[in-house]
Amino acid sequence: MKAILDHVGIAVQDVAKALEFYRDALGLDIEAPEEVWSQRVRAHFIPVGQSSIELLEATASDSAIAKYIDKRGPGIHHITLRVPDIGAALAQLKARGVRLVDEKSRPGAEGALVAFIHPSAAHGVLVELKQPARRLIEQPVTQMKWGNLRLTTVSDGSFRLDGGAMFGIVPRPLWERKAPPDDRGRIVLAMRALVIEADWGRMIIDCGAGNKLDEKWTDIYDIDRTRSLDHTLAEAGLSAGSIDLVLPSHLHFDHVGGAVVNEAAGHVPRFPRARYVIRRGEWDDAIRPNERSRGSYFQEDVAPLEAAGVVDLFDDDREIRPGVRVVRTGGHTANHQIVFIESEGKTAVFAADVVPTQAHLPDLWITAFDSFPMDSLAFKKRFLREAIDREYLIFFDHDPSISAGYIREKDGKRSVQKVI
After folding, report:
1. Per-residue DSSP letters for 156-210?
2. Are the C-beta atoms of residues 404 and 420 closer than 8 Å to each other?
3. How far apart are CA 27 and CA 359, in angstroms?
4. Which residue would you say has higher pLDDT here, 330 or 143?
5. Among 4, 78, 153, 371, which residue's Cβ finds the most Cβ atoms within 10 Å?
């Protein structure tokens, strides 16, 4: 078992005073707090070199941290060892007869998988094992009623992109804790889609990378479609043939590649009865990519749609169907858009690559893939302020551990309250 110190967990009774010491007296940077709702605790991470201090603040009187403080007072609660494979680590410990609190891993902070070793086995110290979110944490297909609409999260699997590119100007020591890279510097990203059902039919927003990429590209992007769009649609009781409308946020391969399927007869539209509703400017950029953009716009994703005559183009922000409207953001691509889903006074937003993961909540955390980063920044600042103030439910297309949640802000720090 290869393990390194990830962090030391400290139970605090008065988080304001604790922050005064670590932030003000010691001058350390405090990351945005994260709510671990299952444990009824709020975690404040403080990077210290290659490890961290984790301040643990109870959010309920019956939480484990609250009980610990009642019994022992504030102080060191546990140490956390980072391991590459938590399942293998637990199996090794069980084989040696080590007493465990958790025989199986469970979700923890920062999208990680965690499990605890009993203090009696570690000479009085509670030891946590942590596997960072280097892998996609498979989310179950989830259906929810949203006013008079039904929303279903589905997935086309995962892929990896260079971590430095995904965080642009942000230094690696800041982003790698939130999105640990593999030995090739790549971070894992989900490829999620959202199905909307209403009396007007069924629409899918985005559709992953699909099955057309060759061995070279599959290796470069480490594409894993073990649970592909077909699988997750089937789990939801749906199929490609049941979709009436396809609405891409933009036409990069990881968002629209699944719109076309590779069959014996060639490349054909995946959704046989659907119309593909696409912003005209984005379509024009995809069919005539420039030197910079042709690495993300693939002709085999769009040309078969044009040949089949299934594309409906539109120009401006508009309501695509009752309760579903698009807003151009620009930035990531010139005509990138997000999708608002509104019904009975509630608003959800498929945020696409404006906020691809929960790690991208800070305004300046913008990808190097964005063609117009200052446009991204201007829109993102306005949108996140509105999303926080109006409590929009945000659907994340690329986050490896969260499908949707509410963005919360406290003392200028943002976090996500996970819903699914």
Report:
1. EEEEEEEHHHHHTTS-HHHHTTTS---TTSEEEEEEEEEEEEETTEEEEE----T
2. yes
3. 23
4. 330
5. 153
Rounded to two decimals, the pTM is: 0.73
Q: Which helix (H) or strand (E) holds 149?
A: strand 149-162
Assigned architecture for domain 4-131:
Roll (3.10)
H/E segment holding residue 88: helix 86-95
Q: For tokens 């201007």, what's the residue?
A: 378
Q: What tens digit of pLDDT does each residue of 226-249 get?
A: 889 999 999 999 999 999 999 999
In contact, 210 and 239? CB cutoff 8 Å: no
- CATH 3.10.180.10 in the chain: give the residue spans: 4-131
The superfamily CATH assigns to domain 142-418 is Ribonuclease Z/Hydroxyacylglutathione hydrolase-like (3.60.15.10)
Mean pLDDT of 333-349: 96
Q: To 10 degrees, the CA torsion angle through 211, 112, 108, 150?
A: -20
**pLDDT of 375-400, one tens digit each?**
999 999 999 999 999 999 999 999 98
HSE value, Cβ hemisphere, 13 Å, CA-based, for 56: 27
